[in-house]
Design a protein that fits this description.
Length: about 350
């Protein structure tokens, strides 16, 4: 395993990335992507056809998105679709944890490169994003079946902790760049930072600052998990409603009510102008809160997370394989044999 000085030299010189079809092969990437994509597609189908529990559809879903509540009229289809989504979401937890475990093993031994650890991270990111959307759909069922709720919560917490740890190397501003030297974009060098052992970035910034993408990833990760997992537990939901949402609504409604009352009594511009200004603020803020509370928001958030994960895999993969032609040949395999042993 390289020490700090060796890592610093490797960053400057670059390393030729070696093929690892067990992580970056077409078969592995397509298997993860298609699995997550089909899960997301099933959730979207359940939502847009109205085959979700009526309690999950808020004003935005019913009035703006025009989603009907058809689950009571088609109970068999509703239950079948829910079971299918539950099975797919379970698979997302298992595959996310499995790929991160493989990545951590390579990280500890110093055998996994920045390039391959980056792919591992965002394969797990896709699994995590899609599963959060499934949690929204399965919320009523899990609240009625505590055993299911407990083990899924444990699985999600394990995946969350692993994701937090996996993001640590990405904090460096030198993470996932082609080279620290000036290079011609038309003639990429084979020696890149992507080929450097990922362990070199564990707790090291190399005096080049913090990667803003990593900070954004942490924020999105924490907010997403707190938002979706918190909604599964009534005490957390009650706490949010009582100590956050209700006081916020009161702070918005009281000035509006005061200005309206004064304007009704005195009919003066002094109260009419503040009334209209505050009304605009109230309407926009309430609309944002209602959108965030809708099922469609969870679905769009998961879709964006899924697309973001694909881009974070496809762009670096294409870039590195352009620089290292041998990598393209070695990672064009469709085999999934190693994942079944």
């Amino acid at each position: 395993m390289p020490n700090y000085t060796e890592c610093a030299n490797l960053l400057v010189q670059g390393v030729v990335a070696k093929a690892d079809p067990d992580i970056a092969g077409l078969g592995v990437i397509f298997a993860f992507t298609i699995s997550a994509g089909l899960t997301l597609l099933a959730i979207g189908a359940a939502y847009f056809t109205g085959l979700v529990d009526a309690g999950l559809l808020g004003p935005v879903d019913r009035i703006i998105m025009h989603i009907p509540a058809r689950a009571p009229q088609h109970p068999r289809i509703h239950v079948t679709l829910r079971k299918a989504i539950m099975a797919c979401s379970d698979q997302q937890i298992v595959t996310g944890i499995a790929i991160l475990a493989a990545g951590f093993h390579g990280l500890v031994t110093g055998h996994i490169s920045v390039y391959h650890f980056h792919i591992v991270l965002y394969l797990a990111w896709m699994s995590s994003s899609v599963h959060l959307s499934a949690l929204t759909l399965l919320k009523p069922f899990m609240q009625q079946h505590r055993g299911v709720l407990v083990w899924r919560s444990v699985g999600m917490l394990v995946l969350l902790v692993m994701m937090i740890i996996a993001l640590v190397p990405t904090i460096s501003n030198d993470w996932a760049v082609i080279s620290l030297q000036n290079v011609d974009s038309n003639h990429l060098p084979q020696n890149t930072v992507f080929g450097v052992p990922a362990i070199c970035f564990w707790g090291q910034l190399y005096d080049d600052g913090v990667n803003p993408d990593a900070i954004l990833s942490y924020i999105v990760l924490f907010v997403s998990y707190l938002w979706k997992m918190g909604g599964l537990f009534p005490p957390i939901t009650s706490f949010w409603t009582r100590y956050v949402r209700n006081p916020w609504d009161f702070c918005l409604e009281w000035p509006l009510s005061f200005a309206a009352r004064k304007y009704g009594e005195q009919r003066g511009l002094m109260y009419m102008v503040p009334f209209w200004i505050w009304l605009a603020i109230y309407v926009e803020t309430t609309a944002v809160l209602e959108v965030l509370d809708s099922f469609s928001a969870a679905l769009w958030l998961s879709t964006l997370g899924f697309v973001y994960g694909i881009l974070q895999i496809a762009v670096p993969r294409g870039l590195v394989q352009t620089a290292v032609p041998d990598l393209l040949a070695g990672e064009s395999e469709w085999s999934l044999v190693s994942w079944y042993h």
